[in-house]
Amino acid sequence: MSPAHVSRETARILRSRLRNSEIMLYVDSANSKTSRWMRWELGYFDGLKGKVGVVPVTRNQEANFKGEKYLNLYPYVDGAKETGSNIEYLWIKELSKRHARLDLWTRESANTRDRSAVEQMSFRLFSIIF
Q: What is the four-CA torsion angle of 9, 13, 18, 21, rounded to 10 degrees?
């Protein structure tokens, strides 16, 4: 599949792959804004399963994430340590004060909890420095 060639066959393959997925992590970067397919895939998957998280990619570690306005509809991925632990986890930030560990959020029964249960840290795993 080539992103330069938009066809019904490409759409059929993408639909099939998305139907076989449990969650979607939408990687938002400067390049995603010019993608021919990413917004279509996001809308299709959201309507199909609704379990979408946004992974913000910034130009440097100090940059604030400023995604497209429609991406504010979805929770985003952040990094943090659980209180009392030195282990770093990826978290899905569902509301301003609610988090769930990403590995648990992928399961239907995972609950989010108050932000006070995690120690905030800068999200640097997906930072790209140019």
A: 180
> φ and ψ at 127, to 5 degrees?
-70, 140
Contact 78, 123 (CB under 8 A): yes
Taking the C-alpha atoms of residue 89 and residue 101, their distance in angstroms, rounded to an integer, is 7
Domain parsing of the chain, residue ranges: 8-120
Mean pLDDT of the chain: 76
pLDDT tens readout for residues 13-36: 999 999 999 899 999 887 888 887
From the number of C-beta atoms within 10 Å of its C-beta (0-12, 13-18, 19+), residue 115 rates as: middle
Residue written as tokens 């609704």? Answer: 50
Residue 47, pLDDT > 90, answer yes
Task: Please list the alpha-helical segments (H only) found in 52-130.
Answer: 102-105
Single pTM value for the model: 0.73
Torsion from C-alpha of 80, 32, 110, 100, nearest 10 degrees: 20
